[in-house]
Amino acid sequence: MTIEYATRYRRASHIPAEPGKPYFVQKGEGDRAHLFGDLITVYAGGEQTENTFNFFTVEGPKGDIIPAHVHEDTHEVFYITHGAVRLFVEDTRGEQQERLLTAGDFGFVPKNCTHAYRMERHHSQVVGVAAGPGGTFERFFENLGEPTERHGLPAEPVVPEPERFATVPQRFDVRFLPDHEWRTR
């Protein structure tokens, strides 16, 4: 059985709002949102973990690079379960790296490191975990994107208006860098 509650972001959730309560979520039944060409499903967030970490999946088609961004207080993990994802990372000294990650591969991005990714194969999936002293950022997906009850990818990419990107750094520890250039390729 799942616990459902309503918030201002979604009509119903399959995860409890209160911390410290055990719960179970069936595959794909977390809180879902469409952003860019992807489906993001949150299974645990700040509400459940007292803002210590989050756990989510990102599924998407082969496509464009997700815009460069940085989390000033949050470390992020990329674990690939399906397909292939190219991870781009720039450390705090400005050294850039990119790596093609396939199923079973892992990438770690420390806080303050600019990063981006691109799905390299259709139906790729990333399991993400983010943690840090500043809390969690998973509600960013449904605030910048569109909450959805659907299980599939969006019929059309959900691309927010440029001015909306400026609203998220203070609330969700995600700062986009629209002029960032990757020199790795």
From TrEMBL:
<dbReference type="InterPro" id="IPR014710">
    <property type="entry name" value="RmlC-like_jellyroll"/>
</dbReference>
<protein>
    <recommendedName>
        <fullName>Cupin type-2 domain-containing protein</fullName>
    </recommendedName>
</protein>
<dbReference type="InterPro" id="IPR053146">
    <property type="entry name" value="QDO-like"/>
</dbReference>
<dbReference type="Pfam" id="PF07883">
    <property type="entry name" value="Cupin_2"/>
</dbReference>
<dbReference type="InterPro" id="IPR011051">
    <property type="entry name" value="RmlC_Cupin_sf"/>
</dbReference>
<feature type="domain" description="Cupin type-2">
    <location>
        <begin position="60"/>
        <end position="119"/>
    </location>
</feature>
<dbReference type="InterPro" id="IPR013096">
    <property type="entry name" value="Cupin_2"/>
</dbReference>
